[in-house]
Amino acid sequence: MHILILGGTGEARRLAGLLHEAQGPAVRVTSSLAGRVAEPRLPPGEVRVGGFGGAEGLARWLRTHQVDALIDATHPFARTISFNAAHAATAAHVPLLALRRPGWAPGEDDRWHPADSLDEAAALLPALGRRVFLTTGRMGLAAFAGLDALWFLMRSVDAPEPPYPARMEVLLDRGPFTLEGEREVLRTHRIDVLVTKDSGGAATAPKLTAAREAGIPVVVVRRPPVPDGVSVAATPEEAAAWVGQLSG
Fold first, then answer.
1. Could you read off the pLDDT of 171-206 as tens digits, one per residue?
2. What is the dihedral angle through the alpha carbons of 186, 154, 201, 19, rounded to the nearest 10 degrees?
């Protein structure tokens, strides 16, 4: 049985490991990485890097490599590949599962401001603060490029490319992050507003706690929906059980 995991997340790596441990040689696992990170953390098993050429290219790859099941374990905001996966799975008649960690939920003392896009998040900022901790990744910074009155601390794994805000400092770092570390970032850089995507998970959640403690407003970009008709698993263990049912 051949499983293709569209990966790049911690959950995808965990799932690949679980399938290798539980299924052994009965299941062949190939993990596909987009190649946007210069030095990605590689999962166990076979790994391919790069795009497929859209939904048609992915469907062709599924057929050519005799894939029996497809698991979309990409980042919750990887909208394009998720919809391509749905179309490709239908075209190739391959079962599809989306692995999505649950999103975050605000607590009683959180000062969250929801936004449906990076552009909407940028429009909210001038009324909320002047020193912005931007944790939305290095893609899409053009949405904030025109906010010349604001100062940005942008954190990502790899350095960004323009266009991006004129007044910006880049912090190259990779999670998981600690609460004390996030407190120090807010203090050292005198942050008064945080921008994040609702990625969910524990690896980057400490910044939300640090912001709550400091009374800092948080602009939270809502995640896009999973394509209609696609089954969803919340954990790698649930996804592994789904594969077990298919192989059984």
1. 999 889 999 999 999 999 999 999 999 999 888 899
2. -140
